[in-house]
Write a structure and sequence with these properties.
Rossmann fold; alpha/beta; 8-stranded mixed sheet; globular; 371 residues; 8 strands
């Protein structure tokens, strides 16, 4: 069920340590106007729909299947939201979920912990967030990381930010890492050229390209990042001192790990990096249109884990689409899948049954409320 792709000994130690243990799930919601650029993301069929993707996912993660939603899950070009995976697991395993609003464009419809952030402008501007906001959000992340580390056995940190793989590419590039062509996306074929042109425009606008030998990581996030990244970095740094942390995601969480390393080095923060792993799905780790494993290797020191999921036998085309490269990951789906195996020894088949059961209930309630 779980494969380790990089830093095998570190990954094995982490998995052995938390075998049979129960997690807390922190899901950080954020927004970047980068996600409104036409064609940049498939997490919502139109730019307007993508304004509400994080809000709809948060509502479903919190409430599960219900007859009426304030913001129904967005219609995708193919596939179904990965929140079905995350919700099926947290519902079945009774995992405590904490939703954090790091900076949304619209008010969420379910209870969230408002961190006092703001939505990011498009990274093309080179002025995504005020420096003061980045610093403030980092400190809020530190505070919550310390609190959540005491809640259960380990902490899963997930995210929902449309356009986040593009801001991730910007952060990785600004840190001096050769990430172009290695990131993933919600598209079946990653739109590398579009992402790269946007990132180049933003970094040049911020006078951060050519890449500086030593860059203030807060200034980098302020220039081309999004509000989730800095909260997740602070949360993981603080929590790692006392417990294990799984950054649940692919490209976006690898960028967060790179950001963590930069913050620790630049500001001399203390953190136990060996306590932090990145957990995703095999659809991301083995995506032939990116190079997630290669990206993890150049970040250096990060153990990349993935849940070996398989939806090819699903009764629903929405989930079989995952096998064609659609969606792949999001809302902590990979990390939650890994947790289901660690705590309950779930197999890929058991996980699929749980996801399909939730989806059938969702479809039944939606159909009957419409009629």
């Amino acid at each position: 069920m779980i494969q380790i792709y990089t830093q095998l000994s570190r990954g094995n130690r982490w998995l052995r340590r938390y075998q049979g243990c129960s997690p807390t799930f922190a899901c950080i919601l954020g927004f970047t106007a980068t996600g409104l650029i036409p064609g940049i993301s498939a997490a919502g069929a139109t730019p307007h729909a993508r304004e509400y993707t994080a809000i709809a996912d948060a509502e479903f993660l919190y409430c599960g299947a219900q007859s009426k939603s304030r913001h129904p899950l967005p219609i995708l070009k193919a596939g179904a939201s990965p929140v079905f995976i995350s919700r099926a697991i947290v519902e079945s395993l009774a995992v405590p979920v904490h939703l954090f609003n790091a900076g949304l464009l619209h008010l969420p419809t379910v209870p969230t912990l408002d961190l006092g952030g703001i939505p990011a402008q498009s990274l093309i501007t080179g002025r995504a967030l005020p420096y003061s906001t980045v610093k403030y959000l980092f400190n809020r992340g530190l505070e919550w990381g310390e609190k959540l580390a005491k809640a259960r056995d380990y902490l899963i940190i997930g995210e929902c930010v449309v356009g986040g793989t593009t801001t991730a590419l910007a952060i990785l590039t600004g840190l001096g890492l050769e990430a172009v062509g290695k990131v993933n996306s919600s598209h079946p074929q990653c739109n590398h050229a579009q992402k790269w042109s946007i990132v180049m425009a933003g970094l040049k606008q911020a006078e951060l390209f050519p890449v500086l030998e030593r860059v203030d990581p807060f200034a980098l996030v302020a220039a081309v990042g999004d509000p989730m990244q800095i909260v997740a970095a602070g949360m993981a740094i603080a929590a790692s001192k006392t417990t294990g942390v799984m950054l649940a995601g692919g490209t976006q969480m690898l960028a967060v790990y790179g950001l963590i390393k930069a913050i620790v080095n630049y500001f001399s923060f203390s953190a136990k990096l060996e306590q932090i792993v990145v957990g995703t799905t095999s659809w991301v780790a083995e995506d032939s249109t990116g190079d997630t494993v290669g990206l993890a290797k150049i970040i250096d020191g990060v153990s990349l884990l993935a849940a070996k999921l398989n939806f090819s036998s699903s009764s629903y085309p929405s989930f079989r689409a995952y096998e064609q490269g659609y969606v792949k990951e999001g809302v902590g789906a990979g990390g939650c899948s890994i947790a289901s195996h660690l705590e309950q020894s779930w197999t890929p088949k058991q996980l699929l049954i749980s996801v399909e059961t939730l989806f059938s209930r969702y479809c039944y309630l939606r159909f009957n409320s419409a009629s």
